[in-house]
Amino acid sequence: MLTVTHLTKKYHASSKPALDNVSFELLPGRIYGLLGPNGAGKTTLMDMVAGFTPPTSGILEYENLPLEGKTSENFRAKLGYLPEHPPLYPNFTPIEQLDFVCAAKGLRGDDKKREINRLLKLCELQGMHNRLIKNLSKGFRQRLGIAQAMAANPQVILLDEPAAGLDVEQILHLRNLLVEQKDERIIVLSSHILQEISVLCDHVIIINEGKVVADSSMDEIGRGTQSNVIFRGEHQAFVKRIADIEGVVSCNVRALASSEKQLIIEIAPGLDLREKVVAAAADVSLLEVRHSSRTLESIYMEAIK
């Protein structure tokens, strides 16, 4: 288990925090999606968990031990990390790069050779193993970065935008690879591609402006429902009546074109509140009421407003 508690990062004392009081818990056997717009703090968070950037305040723990001193060194030996830009030596071949990484992870002799061959096969790099990295396409360099993140059987795998530069076939291979690797491991996948996260991940954490604004399993997202109401009229009293209905989780209103307004109502699983919503609309003009399952897209757009 990897636990993040009240993690904050400020690069300058007077500046706005890059991360602000972030807390969550990651369990083995799951793929976590880390979502957020550009500049939200995703890469800063990845770098802090990997030990490349120290926190200003807060606690990182792995298996209930704080990540500091010897414990931090032991954790990094169990960690595989693909940063946004894979750290590769351009004048190495993939075999030389993986040899270097495996040696740094403590593998020697036949164990190292077996691991290099496993990684080449795992990430489908066999045909490129003797080419210079600087002559590889972006897609193959990305696959090599993923391969070195998988070296030496890491128990925690952090992947920052792993699908960048991959074609459709390579993305499908990456999906299958991560699903195969997740047993007894923690995998964290950072991305701004909602479809990729929704297909691949078991749990989603959304960050905006350095703060966690949503933290939910994909099962919970799929069970929830949403009503989308288009109306005209004063909204304050209407919205209050909606918020007071039992089973309403949240409701948010925004102005549309002309005098129309939109009310998005998040509803607890298993409930259909359309009749109660219509009954609450006595003093507004209803133009449309739609009831649908909650989606990751709707939750994301609501969270980053």
Low-confidence stretches: none
Beta-strand content estimate: 25-35%
CA-CA gap between termini: 31 Å
Secondary-structure class: alpha/beta
pLDDT averaged residue by residue = 92
Main β-sheet, spatial strand arrangement: 6-7-8-3-9-10
CATH-defined topology of the largest domain: Rossmann fold
Largest sheet: 6 strands, mixed
Looking at the overall shape, the CATH architecture of the largest domain is: 3-Layer(aba) Sandwich
Count of helices? 11
H/E element sequence? EEEHEEHEHHHEHEHEEHEHEEHEH
| Gross morphology | elongated
Q: Briefly, what CATH class of the largest domain?
A: Alpha Beta
Number of domains: 2
Description of the structure:
- The protein has helices at residues 42-50, 70-77, 94-104, 109-122, 138-149, 168-181, 194-200, 218-223, 236-243, 274-279, 296-303, and strands at 2-9, 19-26, 30-35, 57-62, 65-66, 79-82, 156-160, 186-191, 203-208, 211-217, 225-232, 248-255, 260-267, 285-293.
- The protein is elongated, with a radius of gyration of 23 Å.
- It folds into 2 domains: 2-216, 3-Layer(aba) Sandwich (Rossmann fold), CATH 3.40.50; 224-303, Alpha-Beta Plaits.
- With 305 residues, the chain is an alpha/beta fold.
- A 6-stranded mixed β-sheet has the order 6-7-8-3-9-10, sandwiched between helices.
- It is 34% helix and 30% strand.
